[in-house]
Amino acid sequence: MGRLVDQKALGARVSIAVLACSKGAEVYSILWSIRTSRPDLIVTLQAVDISQEIIDFAKEGAYFLKGPASLNALDYLGMTEEEKLSWITCRDQGLDQSASIFQRMDKSEMDAMFDRVGDQAKVKSWLKEGITWRVGDASAPELIHTLGTQDVVVANRFLCHMEPAAAERCLRNIASLVKPGGYIFVSGVDLDVRTKVAKELDWKPVPDSLREIHEGDFSLTEGWPLGWWGLEPFWEDHPDWRIRYASVFRVGETGLGIPRMFHGDDLKLRRPRRESCPGAPECADPTGLCNNHSRFAATRYRRAWALAGSPQKLTSLP
């Protein structure tokens, strides 16, 4: 992100939209990265999520520092304010629910981004400036009228919760938010879906650190091929590897490449319900083979078999 916005002129304006912003970690990290490297830029960021509860939490910018308590959603109404803060901070953290939201940050980053107040880490006020928090649906055709076009659109780790056809239509809808010559960041999506859309809309993959970005989150690569959230290993022999494994693209530089608006009133982006998605990283069952997600695991196993040549070679994939 920093390298891309660094191309902007001194004092330029940069518009960013982060879709499915969740608890705000990605939003504040993006702003910290840009504002520390290019403080001259005038950055406006629109953060969108389908949940009002999550938007309210992210906007507050306060996170619990201690490990998660032994609480569950059924007890939510009876929780104290401190217990609610702890539960929301630590929920949906993947297979390891005890993992801290801060585990990949060092002390210098913590000190730069947060003020510590008791057991809380509160986002510094200068990082919260210029953010508009919105409740919205990434698949809604009217989203472009709400947000307008953006220099950068971030759409990470939520399209995987959709059926491939619905994810494709949603991704096309998201692409319409990007200004010609702007950038889209999209990960956590079926690679076939992303590749198809990128080719048809003539997206240009950004080659910088392509492999490092693809392999950056070990929790995803470790889940492949049986976990529905698992990420296919980087395979340079794939004929489309430069597009297939890219997570950042330049969009619509010419008239032929300008994204189209796709309509689909039947599409509603929804968070997976914990009780119906036990295979998700945030759910209790680590097998990834619940009724809702076993089809994704089967698809990835077949793809892995095709790449390896036989099931016996799965463990030796790159």
What is the average of the pLDDT values? 78
Unreliable stretches, pLDDT < 50, 5 or more residues? 254-298, 310-318
Rounded radius of gyration (Å): 20 Å
**What is the β-strand count?**
10
Question: Structural class, judged by helices and strands?
Answer: alpha/beta
Helicity, as a percent range: 25-40%
**Overall morphology:** globular
The H-and-E topology, N to C, reads as: HEHEHEHHEEHEHEHEHEHHHEH
Strand order within the widest beta sheet: 6-2-1-7-8-10-9
Count every helix, treating DSSP H or I runs of 4 or more residues as helices: 13
| Percent in strands | 15-25%
Instruction: Outline the biggest β-sheet.
Output: 7 strands, mixed
N→C terminal distance: 27 Å
Question: What is the topological layout?
Answer:
Layout: H1 2-5, E1 13-19, H2 25-37, E2 42-49, H3 52-60, E3 62-64, H4 81-90, H5 107-113, E4 114-117, E5 120-123, H6 125-128, E6 131-135, H7 143-147, E7 150-156, H8 164-175, E8 178-187, H9 191-200, E9 204-205, H10 210-214, H11 218-221, H12 241-244, E10 248-250, H13 294-308
Parallel strand pairs: 1-2, 1-7, 2-6, 7-8
Antiparallel strand pairs: 3-5, 4-5, 8-10, 9-10
